[in-house]
Amino acid sequence: MDFLIDFLMRLLVQFQSPTLGFLIGGMLLAALGSKLQIPSAIYQFVVFMLLMKIGIQGGMEIRDANLTDMFLPAIISVLIGVVIVLAGILFFSWLPGIRKEDGIATAGLFGAVSASTLAAAIVVLEEETITFEAWVPALYPFMDIPALILAVVLANIYQKKKKEGGNAKVNVWGIVKDSLQGSALSALILGLALGFVTQPERIFESFYDPLFRGFLSILLLIMGMEAYTRLSELRSVAHWYAIYAFFAPILHGLMAFGLGYVAHELVGFSPGGVILLAILASSNSDISGPPTLRGGIPTANPSAYIGASTSVGTPVAIAICIPLYIALGQIVFNL
Predict the structure, then answer these.
(1) Domain extents for the chain?
(2) What CATH number labels 2-333?
(3) Range of lowest pLDDT (161-170, 196-205, 249-258, 300-309)
(4) Collapsing DSSP states into helix, strand and coil, what is residue 237?
(5) Which residue intervals of 200-239 are DSSP H helices?
(6) Mean pLDDT throughout 107-135?
């Protein structure tokens, strides 16, 4: 009962926070028919800045950290991404009226990671004074890349078997290369490399860090407008996508929280790290995933997988999962 009260209080506070306020504001603007448009170039720049900040900070921490501490959380992250995709494909295979390619693409997108949710979670954890290892955001690619690769590989194998029979061959390295060359992962990996190899503390403290929250508010405003726009697309496909998009982030986060707790017991993974890992798992890709899946699974319907992710999955991850796992973490770890 105490957990439920704590969660509801945190959910109420979250609705009053600027983090969620900009997301809801964007949805309201779109619902009211506002003509406000934010150019895609600004959106791409904002995403680049956020990921560079996260990457540089993670790289600086990795430089000074014991890399063996990262090993188990990194393996767990890979496992989470793979399990989410396989479980999602199994779920959609049981349902009527779901095309195989659409189910695989949706599962892949929910197995991948959202940069906007990650950035929002970092801000909320800092406001709650919950500390975590600065390299935890660097677990992003360990979850994101395997999920996207697995989804594209399985979709291509399915399509080739339909056309060619049993002798299906898929260019796995080509998929890996495309994933690594995606804009979101490229920015994050660049930031990690710069933070690890160089000494960027001064430019980080004077430029990237002070601008982080402002850029995040712009990104969430854009995400809110996009979420409402995608709702009309989601209505055109099976309602199962909306049901999955609502419940899957919560279940994925619970699985990650449990595995993170194992890492906490075995290698001393911090409570804040466990919470952030759960939020990473509950998120669904809004930047790197869609273009990767568009190119890798061209026969899949974007209205299904992007509509489910953007219009339902991301708001659930930010509005519900962030306060949920903070409340759960405070109870489990007595924070």
Answers:
(1) 2-333
(2) 1.20.1530.20
(3) 161-170
(4) coil
(5) 201-203, 209-235
(6) 88
